[in-house]
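Worked example 2:
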Amino acid sequence: MKDSRDFARLPLRTLILRCALPATISMGAMALYSVIDGVFVGYFLGASALAAINLVFPLFLLFSAVIDMLAAGSAVQIATRLGAGEREEASRIFSFSLFAIFVVSIGVAVLVFVGTRPLLSCMGAAPDVIELAATYLYILAAGAPVCMFFFATDNYLRICGWQNYSMALNVGVAVLNIVLDYLFLVSFGWGIAGAALATAIGLGGGTVLSFVPFVLHRTELSFVRGTIPLRQFGKLAFNGSSDFFDSTASSVMDLIVNTVLLHLGGTLAVAAFSVVMYLDSVVSMLVFGLTTSLQPALSYCHGAGLRARTRRLQKAVMLVAGMLSIGALVLLEAAGPWALTFFVEPGDTALLELSQTALAIFALSYLVKWVDVCVSGYFTALEQPTISLGLSLVGTLLAPLAALAVLVPVLGLAGVWWMPLCAGMLSALLSLGSLRRAACS
C-alpha cells in the first residue's frame, strides 16, 4: 500500500490481502515465538516455571490495559481523521498519544513492583512459584516504558500503509527473541530471568526500529507539538475502552481461573493450563491480527462515508476468521497431543496427560470464540464504544464467570476446560444479535 487512501481505492480482495497477509504473518511469527518460549521454559525449567509465567502474565496484561486503550482509541481516531482529510489533526493525536503511553508505562512499572508479591500470595501460590513469577514480571516491568511503544507504533505503521515494514519488524522481533531464549536459558543457564530478559530486549529493539519511518518523515503521520482537548482525549479513551476492558477482564478472568486451578489441582493444573494457553495463543493472535489489521480500513471508510464498503469488509473479516478458527480446531484435535510433548520435561507423564485432556476439550471453543472478537472490533472501528464495551463485558467476563460457576461444582477440574466453549456460545449469540440490529438501523 502507498498510503491510507488505498483503503478506499483498492478492490476489496486486494485490500484484504494486502492488510491481512502481513498482519497474519506478523502475528504468526509472534505466536511462534510465544510457543517456542513456552517450549524452552517447560522443557528446560519445568512445571513450576510454566505455572509461574501463567500466574503472572495476566498481571502484566492487567497493568498494561490502559496502554491498550490509548493505542486502540487513538488508532481509530487517527484513521478516521485521515479518511476525512484532516492530516494535521491526525498527527497531533498521534504525537500526544505517544506521550501519554510513555507516562502510563512508567505508572505500570511502579504498580508491578508494588503489587505483584502480595497478590500472588493471596491467590495461594507456593513460595517457590511466587519467587519465579516475581522475577519474571519485574524484568518485564523495568522495560515497559520502552517496550510498550512497540504495540502502539505497530498500529500507526499499518494506518500509514506500512504493513510490510510492520510485518518485517514483528518477524524480526520474534526471531531475535527465539535466539535470545536459547542463549539465555540453554547456553547461559539464566533461568526464568533469561526468558523475561529475552522478551524485554526483543521488544525494545522492535520499538526503536518502529520509530524510524516517523523520524525520517516517510509516513503521513509526523511528530508535532501541542495537545488535544480534554474532551477529545476522553472520547479517545472511551473509544478504546473495549480494548481496555477486554484486556482487564481477560486478565481478571485468568487470575480467577488460576486461583480455581490452584485449589482444584495445585501447581500441576496451572502448568497444564499454561501449556494449553501457549497453543491457544497461536490461534488467538492470528484471529486478533486479522481483525486489527483491517480496523484502520474500516475506520477510514467509515470516516469517508463509504457505508456499503464498510459492511462488505466486515463480512469478509468474519468469514476468514471463522475459517481460520475451524481449521485450527481440526489441526489441534489431530496434532495437539504430539505438540504438547515439546512443553513437558521428559518423564513428566502426569503433566502431559492432564494437558492432553485439557486441550481436547478446550479446542472445541474455536467453533465460536472468534465471533465476539470480530464484532467487538467492528464496533470499535466505527467509534461505537458503548456496544463494543458491552460485548467485551459479556465475552471476557460475565459469560466465562457464569459458565465457571455452573460447571465447576458439577464437573470439578473438567469444568474449567469446558468453560471457554460454553461462554463462547453465549457471547457469540449476543454479538451476532448486535450486529444484525446495527445492520437494520
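The first helix runs from residue 6 to 9. DSSP finds 18 helices and no strands in the chain.
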